[in-house]
Amino acid sequence: MILSVIRHIDQINKAVGHAFAWSIVILTLGVSYEVFVRYVLNDPTSWAFDFSFILYGSLFLMAGAYTLSRGGHVRADIFYRRWRPRTQATLEFVLYIFFFFPGVLALVFSGWEYSSESMRIREVSVNSPAGVPIWPLKMLIPVAGVLLALQGVAEMLRCVLCMREGQWPARLHDIEELEEVLQHGAHGDAGQTGDRA
């Protein structure tokens, strides 16, 4: 039952993360277009700056929960990685309660007030004469907070399972860090060399 809840939350954040990953492609095309018209045609656009910070901001906000679901956030793990899984899970559980959730819930509630005011006045960017609407970006702040809170619940449930069973439950794997790919390749090459010998 617990594992099923974790998987469902992971799947929700996977779908959101994959959808917003397309922002990178759109951002790349938009910035490339701006560079071309600015430096080749000498005719810069009035919307490029707003376009780039809105797309990058959206990606940053909406990828947080996805990254958490993959264990991809930066941590100072010089000691942590040497501990037994039960010790790791106990520490993480406590940290989620005292540090993660207060911050994320503050993001949800203050983000809602901030973004609803922005939507109410139909806020636009002051950085360009184009008047690009920025209230949709600000509306993503509480949404990102809710997704992070949801993923935090999944991570706490992971901790509970680890404290009970002594090992971390498997995570969804739709991506792999380059470092891990290189390490697997190095171990694979070493194994093949050993087989030949």
List the helices and strands and how they pair.
Elements: H1 2-39, H2 48-62, H3 64-69, H4 85-120, H5 135-165, H6 178-196
What would your notes on this structure say?
Helix 1 packs antiparallel against helix 5 (135-165), helix 2 (48-62) runs parallel beside helix 5 and helix 4 packs antiparallel against helix 5. By secondary structure, this protein is an all-alpha fold. The radius of gyration is 22 Å and the shape is globular. It starts with a helix and ends with a helix. The protein has helices spanning 2-39, 48-62, 64-69, 85-120, 135-165, 178-196.
Question: Can you describe this structure in just a few lines?
Answer:
By secondary structure, the chain is mainly α.
Keywords:
197 residues, disordered C terminus, single chain
Relative strand content: under 5%
The gyration radius over C-alpha positions equals 22 Å
The averaged pLDDT comes out at 88
Structure classification: mainly alpha
Distance between the termini: 48 Å
Order of helices and strands: HHHHHH
Sheet with most strands = none
